[in-house]
Design goal:
The structure is a single chain. By secondary structure, this protein is α/β, with parallel strands linked by helices. Helices cover 24% and strands 23% of the residues. It contains 7 helices and 11 strands. Strands 1-2-11-10-9-8-6-7-5-4-3 form an 11-stranded mixed β-sheet, with helices on both faces. Strand 8 (183-188), helix 4 and strand 9 form a beta-alpha-beta unit. Helix 2 (124-130) runs parallel beside helix 7 (284-295). The longest helix has 17 residues, at 159-175. The chain is globular and about 40 Å long.
Length: 296
Amino acid sequence: RQMCIRDSSNGSSASGGVTTSAGATQASATDPSGDTTDGSDSDPSGSGSGEESGDTTGPPVEPPEGFACDDPFEHGGRQGCRMMVEGLEVKYFPLDEPAPAQRLVVFLHGDGGADYTDNWGFRQEILDWAIPQDFLVVGIRSPASYDGDTDPSFGAAQPVHADMVATTLEAFIDAYDVVEDRALYWGISGGSWFTTSSYIPVAGHRVPGIFVANCGGSGVSFGWQWEPTNSPEIVALNSLYMNYGDQDFLAQPSAESYAEYTEMGFMTGQLVHPGATHCAHDISQPTLDFWMGELE
């Protein structure tokens, strides 16, 4: 079922037509934490019988401490870390209290990886919104490159690379005892192509989330390792939002990805910026708006 939230075409590159499709309901995530006892094996009754109370729960279970920082860096006044996790290079922003993290926020960079390497893809507005909420922001360097090139490019990634990315994110979930099931993803250009082409098909049932594909889309998906038509509960955990300019060379495949995922029953939406070329429009605020629209 489709519902039009807003449709504005005043020619400004800062606003555009926004449509959403509610093909699935959002599933709520739960907090797996629970109370623990103090582990005492003394008789709390004070009877002096000398018998143990029967408390066998043991000492409180300490939360995981996260990953040690191998290579620190600073960006936007915040401390970041670069390291290898499950064979992939990552950058992340440690929290004041390592665990539990409330939610993962995942950045998938553009082709060539300059926005990852030089850190400017880690948008200040997103960091300032996520980190105070104990959301762990993680960027992953693409394990794929185009033939004859060594620069990291998610536009060259295939299902095998999607499996690698999911495995790395699962390691973060375990290391930081992440509370919420649904991650928040934002991609740029090639990272958005990767999102719609094979990442959701491969990892949507493993690390589901709210995906915002900025200035990029594949038009078709492939490598599905789960079947959306038979898995409404998984579809309900994944949403896809497209944010692109109508003069972007990836405008058509972006629109086609929106249509494909809408037809499969996903919650979808798109913001189209009239007159805007490739990535020449706001990225941060639409990304935050799409995320908050579901979380609130």
